[in-house]
What does this fold into?
Amino acid sequence: MPKDQRFGQAAILSPEQLQELCNSFPVGQHKYISYVLTFSGARVSEVLALRWRDIKDDYILFKSINTKTKKSRQVNLHPKLKYYLAEWREKYWYQFPLLNKQIKSTERRVPTPDCFLFRGKNKNTHLTRQAFDKQLRAQLQQLMMEGSSTHSYRRSNLTAAKNNGLALADIMQISGHTSLDALNKYLEPNQEEMKRVVGAFGF
It folds into this structure.
C-alpha cells in the first residue's frame, strides 16, 4: 500500500521512474545521492555517512558504525554508479556545498580519503538527511510521484531484484537485513505472480 498522508509504505518506482527522478535533480549533491541510492539499495543514512575511503575499486563498504544492524557489509559497485561517482569526484565535488553563491571561482581540489562524499556546512560533517529529504520532496512533487519518499529507492531496488528471480538470501546480503521477515516488509508482491498463484487454485 503506497503512503497516504505519511501512512502506509513508500511507493515502488519503476526503473524508468527512478531514472526520471535522478535526472530531475540539478547538478549537485542531491543528484549524486540519488544515484547512489538508486544503484546500491542502501539506506539514506548509510549513503550520507560514506567517506571516499569507503569507495573501493569494485565495491562500496558500509561500515558497522553507520548501519542500522551495526554490521559492516560490502555492496558491489554497479558500473553506472562507478561512472557517476568518478564524475562527482573529479568534476563537481569541490564545488559543494555552495555556502556563498556569489563566489564565482572555487578552488579546485580532489577530496582526501577521509572526506565525506556529501559534505555538510561544516567540513567535518556530512549533508543531513533532512536537507536531502527536503529537496527530494520538491522533485517528487514536480514529477507528481505521489506516495514516494527516501524509502522508495530501497523498496524499489529490492523488489526489482526479487521480481528478477534473485534469491532472497543473496538480496539480504546486499540489503543488510538480518531476517527474511525484515526483508519481506520491504518487498511488494508481484501482481502477475499473485494472479498465477490464484490461477493454480481449484480444479
The first helix runs from residue 15 to 24. The chain has nine helices and two strands. The CA atoms of residues 69 and 192 lie 33 Å apart.
